[in-house]
Amino acid sequence: MQHLTPQGQQIVDDIARRHGFSQDAVTHMLVAVLNGNGGMAQFSHPEFGGSGQWMQGGMLMLGDMFNSSLKGRVDALCYELSNLLANQPGLLQSGSFQSQSQGGGSFQNQTSGGFRGESDLFVPDPADHWWPQELGVPNATGTQNNVKYAYFAEARRLAVNTGGDVWVYDTLDHQIGGFSQQQGMGGSISFGSQYGTIDLGRLPVVSRNGQSVEAPPPPAYAPDRSMLNQPAPNPHANEGDIFAAIERLGDLRAKGILTDDEFNAKKAELLARL
């Protein structure tokens, strides 16, 4: 349930006075327009002729369908409330990040770029701000089943609330555009980025319930760097052997076992044998 701030109540009082409706009626319509994301409203109030529907663009239906004067007043009220909400930060959804699979959830943009502050109209609901406060205002939020998501693009963080536990992930250089969740108990979570569909478990965990999570220890074994010390194929080796060796070196570089300089030096040595 939405509760008005003192400033929001003053705004509603002024609108009610100018349009000739009660404060209760205007508050009812304000919430209805908000629930319609600023572009439509389904309402039911005696001052508006009972049940009705308004849609931006000229469509208005009232229970008192032949009352042209009331229609004009309600239409004017809805347009003013729509413009009011559009100028309030974070209230209207300006777009959505699409889900990655059937049954997946979708992110809802809270801003059209950058972070935006709280609305002056409504008292924030603590339940809607479950992520760590230091992360600020998310660029997008979403929910599916019992999982909630909040994405902070500038901070490169993704907060995930699963059953009351809040996990914060480092998103690295991913530009997250949505998520999907496999059905069933313990279903895995993945997200979409410019690199395709990625399993959430591949992101480093920063914290859980406000407590820092240490990075996993390095592997107990030493990486196999023996390929660097192996002699290059003899001059009579076929091209397939050389290219296969280069491919193996590339795999070692991708895994972080070889540096770029080590890879390039060995590659040049191999190519010189062609």
From TrEMBL:
Q: Where is the signal peptide?
A: none
Instruction: Describe the location of the SHOCT domain by residue ranges.
Output: 244-271
Cross-referenced InterPro entries: SHOCT
What are the Low complexity biased-composition ranges? 95-113
Q: Where is this region: Disordered?
A: 95-119, 210-236
Q: Which domain of life is it from?
A: Bacteria
Q: Which Pfam families match?
A: SHOCT
Q: What is this protein called?
A: Short C-terminal domain-containing protein
Q: Which organism is it from?
A: Thiocapsa roseopersicina
Lineage, highest ranks first? Bacteria, Pseudomonadati, Pseudomonadota, Gammaproteobacteria, Chromatiales
